Amino acid sequence: MEEVTDEPLYRERVCGIDIGKAQLYATIRVPSDSNPARRASETRSFATTKRGVLALADWLRAWQVPAVVMEATGDYWKGPFYRLEAGGFECVLADARQVKNLPGRPERDPSDSSWLAQCFERGAIRSCFVPAPEFRVIRLHTRYRRDLIEERTREKNRTEKLLESAAIKISSVVTDLHGVTGRDIMDHLIAGERDIKVLAQRARRRARRKIAELEEALEGAEFFTGCHAGLLKTMLARIDQIDAEITRLSEVIEQLLAPWEEQLQQAESQPGWGRRSAQDVLAETGPDMTKFPTGGHLVSWAGRAPLDHQSGKHQGRSRHKKGNKYVAAATGETAISAGKTGTREGARYRKLARSRGKAKACVALGNTQLKVYHKLLSNPGMRYQDLGPDYYQRRAQTRRKIACHVRELEELGLEVTLCRPGPAQDDSEPTRAA
Questions:
Q1: Rounded mean pLDDT of 389-414?
Q2: Which of 249, 170, 270, 250 is nearest to 210 (CA)?
């Protein structure tokens, strides 16, 4: 029997923490005093309050434990994580899918904390991305603004359903029910006006060409009762209130992101990207792209990358790759906007939409945009330079020419090997982001 030496541990002194809402269990693993080849372990419970976390920190310092790992459980991990991080500890956040409970292992908080510590000391846990302290505050504002925008959209949908229930079909005629024309008509309905000719005359600008259609859409105004008017007034007041809150939040976000104006300008240089989209994505990723080694890592973290599953000869594609939902929402909007432009990204969206459908084209273009975003922020001062809407056509023509020339040379009995020489470095020529 040959004796073998175990692989050295990734860390000698570690702590694994299983966090709940009111209580956490922490397990430390350190070298044994009696036999250095063995490990000593101890598990204790602490409250998740400030006093409890400070007691945990004192216990870790007593055992000279420099690093802790905890599972990303809802939002419960944030308080202990931030406080231990401020106390000088190296904090690692573990993805729940990496350290999920194995079959046959009991599901208990103390044993879960021990399992986290064992995985951590062997280097089997990859740290999740956690933003810098200043961007944690910015995130709170941008995420709440997006939540308010979604709530405003739901309130607008309720308004349309209310009008439909009263047989009023304004949304079938005007482009935006909550534009100048639609809002003026709804205000007069709330005030008690039921004459369809008077209501139709409230049309503004291009909507005045549809006065006859508006009169036809308003023929059900006699079914619009006082109860409908009361509900509509409440809904419109709620929409106005949300608009004011969104405006106030946008002003605060502008102030918070003022030091990173250059990064915002870089992101806005892409087709389809506006100020709000750039703010939302920058708040989620932060300006430091070294956190993501390549653009592909950023795409995978955001959930915009394809996810393949293979087992033996069977290959299948999973339904959905989970990622940062706020980045996914922002890139979904930018992809649709870019698809309407005469740019390389617009051509890519339309090309994929014809062959694969709009949903997959939206995800694929979001993938491309995030890679461009990573390239831009990795190079200070760089701006997006479009390759042209005929980029894919020109590339296909080049490939056809190459194939034709290779075929002609092979017919002459020659063996052709293609290689692309490295371009000469010219500092005066700007780098092109693709």
A1: 84
A2: 170
434/423 Cα distance (integer angstroms): 17
Q: In a 3-state reduction of DSSP, which class is residue 400?
A: helix
How distant, in Å, are the alpha carbons of 38, 60, 80, 92, 144 from that of 53? 28, 11, 6, 16, 28
Give yes or no for a contact between 98 and 125, defined as CB atoms under 8 angstroms apart. Answer: yes
Per the rule left: phi > 0, alpha: psi between -120 and 50, beta: everything else, 70 is beta
Mean pLDDT (the chain) is: 86
Please say whether the beta carbons of 281 and 292 come within 8 A: no
Please choose, from the candidates 129, 71, 68, 67, the residue with its C-alpha nearest in 3D space to the C-alpha of residue 100.
Answer: 71
How far is the C-alpha of 29 from the C-alpha of 368, rounded, in Å? 44
More confident residue, 430 or 35: 35
Q: Are 72 and 99 in contact (CB under 8 A)?
A: no
Please check the confidence at residue 7 and state whether its pLDDT lies above 60.
no
Predicted TM-score (pTM) of the model is 0.83
User: Taking the domains of the chain in order of start, what are their residue ranges?
Assistant: 14-121, 135-256, 260-308+321-378, 391-417
Each residue of 334-388: pLDDT tens digit? 999 999 999 999 999 999 999 989 988 999 999 999 999 999 999 999 999 988 8
Whether the CB-CB separation of 144 and 256 falls below 8 Å is answered with: no
Tokens for 364? 């694929």
Are 60 and 88 in contact by the 8 Å Cβ rule? The answer is no
pLDDT tens for each residue of 178-233: 989 989 989 998 988 888 888 888 888 888 888 888 888 888 777 788 888 999 99
Classify burial at 323, counting beta carbons within 10 Å of its beta carbon; exposed 0-12, middle 13-18, buried 19 or more. middle
- CA gap 182, 100 in Å, rounded: 52
Which numeric CATH code is attached to 14-121? Answer: 3.30.420.10
